[in-house]
Specification:
The strands form two sheets. The chain has an eight-stranded antiparallel beta barrel with strand order 1-3-4-7-8-10-11-12. It contains one helix and twelve strands, in the order αββββββββββββ. The protein is mostly beta strands and 207 residues long.
Length: 207
C-alpha cells in the first residue's frame, strides 16, 4: 500500500510538472506578407506587410487565448476604368490603408504535433488611408472609416527549438471583413459597400 501511494505521488508530480511546462504564458513577435482584396469589382489585389506582437494564454486543456496587436497594410489597385478625376482616367492608381489590428484569437492545440487552429474577432483602427496615383501623387482617402470589424481564422504551427526557450511560429491566416469601410458617396468608389479581406503568412518567435 505504501509503495502504491508513493507511486501515485510520483506520477502526480511528473504530470503536474508536465502541465506547468505546457501551461506557461508565452509572448512573441511576428512579421509577414499579406495579399489584401477589397470586395466588389473596383479593385485588384495588393501585397502588403503585417507584423506585431502577441501573448499566448492557456485556458484549460488544449484551449488557449491569443490577443495580438498588429500593423497591417491593406488596400487594392484600382482597375483601369475605376479611378477617374474629372475627365482624366488614371490607369495606375491604388488605395493604400494602414491599420492597427487587434484580434482576439481562440485557439485549440493538437498537442502531439503542436498544431493550432484558431478563430476570433478583430478590430482595426485606421492609421492612414491615401489614394496613390501614377508614380507618386497621393490624395487623402476621406471615404475610409476610422474602424473596421473583421473575423480572423487560420492555422499555426509551433516548432520547439531544442535546448532553447524560444519557439519558432509559422502562421497562415485569412481575415474576412464584416463591415463596410466606405462612408458617404465618392466618384471613385461606385459600389455601395466595400470590405477588407486578406490572406497572410507570418513567421514569428515566442518566448
Amino acid at each position: 500500500m505504501k509503495n502504491t501511494l508513493i507511486s501515485f505521488i510520483f506520477m502526480f508530480a511528473i504530470l503536474d510538472a508536465h502541465a506547468q511546462r505546457q501551461e506557461k504564458i508565452g509572448f512573441g513577435i511576428q512579421a509577414g506578407w499579406s495579399m489584401s482584396r477589397i470586395s466588389g469589382d473596383t479593385f485588384d489585389g495588393k501585397a502588403g506587410f503585417i507584423g506585431g506582437v502577441h501573448a499566448n494564454f492557456p485556458v484549460f486543456g488544449s484551449f488557449y487565448v491569443q490577443p495580438e496587436v498588429n500593423f497591417q497594410q491593406l488596400g487594392g489597385k484600382y482597375k483601369s476604368d475605376a479611378y477617374v478625376i474629372g475627365d482624366i482616367l488614371y490607369r495606375d492608381a491604388e488605395l493604400n490603408m494602414n491599420y492597427l489590428g487587434v484580434p482576439i484569437l481562440m485557439k485549440y492545440r493538437f498537442n502531439p504535433i503542436d498544431l493550432d487552429i484558431f478563430v476570433g474577432p478583430q478590430v482595426g483602427f485606421k492609421l492612414r488611408a491615401k489614394n496613390k496615383v501614377g508614380e507618386g501623387e497621393t490624395y487623402e482617402a476621406y471615404h475610409v472609416k476610422d474602424t473596421d470589424i473583421a473575423g480572423v481564422y487560420g492555422l499555426e504551427y509551433c516548432l520547439r527549438l531544442p535546448d532553447s526557450r524560444v519557439d519558432l511560429i509559422l502562421n497562415a491566416r485569412y481575415t474576412t471583413g464584416f463591415t463596410n469601410f466606405n462612408k458617404g458617396e465618392n466618384p471613385n468608389m461606385p459600389n455601395d459597400s466595400y470590405r477588407n479581406n486578406a490572406l497572410a503568412f507570418i513567421l514569428g518567435i515566442r518566448f
